[in-house]
Amino acid sequence: MSVVVVNPIAFPSIDVIPAYPEIFLLVAASAILLVDMFVSDRRRLWTYWLSIAALVVCAVLSGLYLAGGSTIYTFGNMFVADPMANLLKLATAITVLITLVYSHDYLVDRGIVSGERGGEFYPLVLFAVIGQFVMISSNNFLSIYLGLELMSLAFYALVALRRDHSTSTEAAMKYFILGALSSGFLLYGMSMLYGATGTLDLTQLAKSLEAGITNRTILVFGLVFIVAGLGFKLGAVPFHMWIPDVYQGAPSAITLVVGGAPKLAAFAIVMRLLVDGLVALAVDWQQMLTILAVLSLALGNFAAIAQSSLKRMLGYSTISHMGFLLLGVLAGIIDGNALSAASAYSSALFYAVVYALTTCAAFGVLIAMSQNGYEADALDDFKGLGKRSPWTAFVMMITMFSLAGVPPTVGFYAKFSVLSAAFATGAAWLVVFAVMMSLVGAYYYLRVVKLMYFDDPVVDLPVAGRATRTDARFLLAVNGIALLVLGIVPQPLIHACVEAMARSLAS
Fold first, then answer.
1. Is the pTM of the predicted complex or chain greater than 0.85?
2. What one-character-per-residue DSSP string does 122-167 give?
């Protein structure tokens, strides 16, 4: 295990090496934007394949850095490339790549990647990914906020991309207003911490707090705003209001862009801010996260039961899953003891990766069913799917089982690992409550399975047929099978998460 702090003056040739994925993606996104200006609609497939290629290169670079296992601080200690960051970047690149493959036909069918708006989608997605990468590797308040706003601004535009649809523009307006409010919370909290400690660097912030030379009242006051801003980015109650509306209002492909990979980046800034920078205030933010987790588990699961829209149901489901994710984060430090930190935080990392993979499968099925301008959003659209398209129904069944935490899917092991970490804190009531909420959640997930296999179809629509490309159908099959295989053999992914987290915490 090695930790390197790069001096950009002494070693200018290697200063940018840890940021190669971000630099390459920035150049690629700019080039794709220029290429799109000079191609016709018939050749716009080039922008799609170039975007896929750019993500593949980023995934390879992140994988190589992850295999190296080292931690490098650079750009004046503002940027850190550690194993946790490299694993999250790898997962983010793969998630977005899957999203683009699933979405291409859907976007073409609705004119989102053709005509006047054709040049906007892929560069906006890539710029959002750059923002997520910067968030993941940030070690400074400024770089965290820079990455966060780059991602958020791209998402505001993406949600509103169908500007001739009132539902999409309404969702974008709500997202923008609440997003600006949450950014204000986060920025105000950062300014309070800077005023109390005199530093923007998270490493120096942690040292200052350990020395105990700052005013604790001001620190806790700033921490409240930090947690509020993080709660919005995660979609935790009571900062969840935007999720159901954005999930339902945005086109399904863009909903997947907003609801999949960004949760990995949000988890990263939770770790950077709370664990790396504010670990001395763990007692305070653990209490706050406990409240957010309990409220998210309760409201997310009970509200999802009443939904007739699958996208809105998945939105409330996301809120409940963020509650589970917070359980892993708050379990890292027990009575000031951080001996179980690596195990607890790696369980939360594992949960975040599994959630992103499962979300891709769920929306992949939904997108495959939304053909010829028809939006397969209502639960009734899934009635009789087992008869109309057995393989698509099977993938959706595995996805619902994984979201519900039913063995032997990987979702079961994700929830089990988080609950085990939470139980180690001695908060048995919290574990019992989470299990009870999981049982509530199982109802609306299994309801989808019941509709697919035991109800007669209301509409007879072609599903994943000729209108869906072979590569998308193949990838959807691989995605669904992966949820099952990783549930049967979860050890490689769990081991990767444990190793990445342990090495990152040791640095």
1. yes
2. HHHHHHHHHHHHHHHTB-BHHHHHHHHHHHHHHHHHHHTS-TT-HH
